[in-house]
Amino acid sequence: IVVTGPYDSFMAGLIGGYFVFGARSRHGKISSVNQQIVIYIFARVTLALARLAVKQGTGFPIVSHEPLSSQISYYAWPVFASVSWGAVMALFRYHPEDLQSSLRSSMTYIYKDCDSWDSLRTLVWHNK
Questions:
Q1: What is the reported pLDDT for 3?
Q2: Taken in order 6, 12, 14, 15, is the CA torsion positive or negative?
């Protein structure tokens, strides 16, 4: 017997996500691969929900009507990008230990190690 309802997909995702992507290793750590997959999914879901919010007929009452819907759609990505980078810059400055390690390494390379180079190789390819 197959039972379907309005929440079956959501419940399947909750259960599958918990056991497949939320599982910890024997040492109690969460796989960095699983973290990356879940972060990717979270970002895509957030973008889809933002688009749905301004979609005519299904979105939020005020923002899904023209001309506000078009204005929000036009400016949403630049605002999202700037807030994301502003947040990562502030976190890197004041709480770098709380950033995911690969992002922290990239930020260190870009903003700290870039000040010291002695050849074109260390400037462009490998620094410190």
A1: 62
A2: positive
